[in-house]
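Batch job 17 of 40 flagged for manual review because the log was empty.
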Amino acid sequence: MNKKKFLMLFASLSLTGGCATKTLTLVSNEKANISLVDYDDQAGEGDLVGETPVAIEVDKLKRQYIRVWGEDLHPQFWVVKPLEDSKTEITLRLDRKEDSGESDAALRLQELNRSFRMMMRAYKALTAKDLETAREISKQINQLQPDIAAPHIITGLSFLAEGNKSKARASFLKAKNLDPEDRDLEELLRLSNP
């Protein structure tokens, strides 16, 4: 099992208009490196922006994670979504890695909890009809937990909402293969018949 510990934190920030270039400043209790990572490359290193404190142009945050990392620090990934408010600074609380190491059970539980949090965010995006975000988050969950059906169901529902029955059906079939006892999938497969 991969012993690396990752925290996926989602930040909703508000930034007002009026200034030519909006920036977000990251400060932290420990010195940390900041990189920008494309959504499609969660496991990637990203492009180094600098060391905290660091200011990032908000336009650069579209479709990218903020990766916070450093020697002896637990890496973190942040997704920043601008809203309509005046917040322009985030203070990061960074934790140092423990030398004693964590048990495999604790790491599995942490990954499972992170997956459930992400699942709730994917479902929230789906119900808000932000179908692309729902699919992006579901893809990330599938990378973390490839043996669970739920991300495929959310992906299928997003395609069904767009009227793309063939893609929806393919996602529902993947879910059915992973969870053959889920009787609700029979109805979703029926609805996605071309």
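Reviewer: the log was empty due to a logging misconfiguration, but the result itself is present. The first helix runs from residue 104 to 127. Unflagging and moving on to job 18.
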